[in-house]
Amino acid sequence: MTGVLCVAAMWAAVLAVGNQVKWWNNGSSEVASGEGETTSTGATTATPSPEPAGGSETMSLFAGSAVELVANRGSWNTIGCKLAPKGWTPESPIAAGRVVLSNPTDRAAKIVLESAAEARSLTSIRVTKSAGKTFHIGMLDKRLAGQVHLTDRWLLIELPAGNQDWNDELLQRFMASCAVN
């Protein structure tokens, strides 16, 4: 009898304190609804995550990843990033609030950085918090994408379709290096 009461009390506390949908949803809802989000305070995979760039650090290479983030020496109008994928260059002209990066070895592959007033709806969302920011990583039109709220604007980064060279930690590190003016 005591065990049944303990279990009942635990479930009552979970339902009273937590959002019930988060406990029962399978994680396939959109970020705008706030349902089905998984939240953690750091990286969730076994690959080591280097600390954010600071001082003289100019590059980040993740184990098993072919994408290398290096110091970005260029200006991209209203979106600025301290890091950029090595070899990727901005297409001209650069529009206000939108930058398209292309890869010289695969001109069809594009990385789109966009500033927006509202968050976009992502599916299969994963949420992590780091350095006072909340990063939303998921899928947008069958592409890995991430977004983070910076001051009064959202930064959305869409990666090339079918690209297996990126992982959540690498995308988060790229987003963390960016600012929107």
Write a structural description:
With 181 residues, the chain is an alpha+beta fold. The protein has a single domain (25-180), classed as Protein Transport Mog1p, Chain A. Helices cover 17% and strands 37% of the residues. The protein contains three helices and 13 strands, in the order H-H-E-E-E-E-E-E-E-E-E-E-E-E-H-E. It has helices at residues 2-17, 20-24, 168-176; strands spanning 39-40, 59-61, 68-71, 79-81, 83-85, 89-90, 98-103, 106-116, 123-130, 133-140, 143-150, 153-158, 178-180. Strands 1-9-10-11-12-8-7-6 form an eight-stranded mixed β-sheet, covered by helices on one side. A three-stranded antiparallel β-sheet has the order 2-3-5, with no helix packed on it. Strand 6 (89-90) and strand 7 form a beta hairpin. The longest helix is centred in the first third of the chain and has 16 residues, at 2-17. The protein is globular. Residues 1-64 have low confidence and may be disordered.
Q: Tell me the structural class.
A: alpha+beta
Which shape, going by the Cα principal axes?
A: globular
Secondary-structure arrangement, i.e. CATH architecture: 3-Layer(aba) Sandwich
Say what the CATH topology is.
Protein Transport Mog1p, Chain A
| N-to-C series of helices and strands | HHEEEEEEEEEEEEHE
Arithmetic mean pLDDT: 74
Rg, rounded, reads: 19 Å
CATH class: Alpha Beta
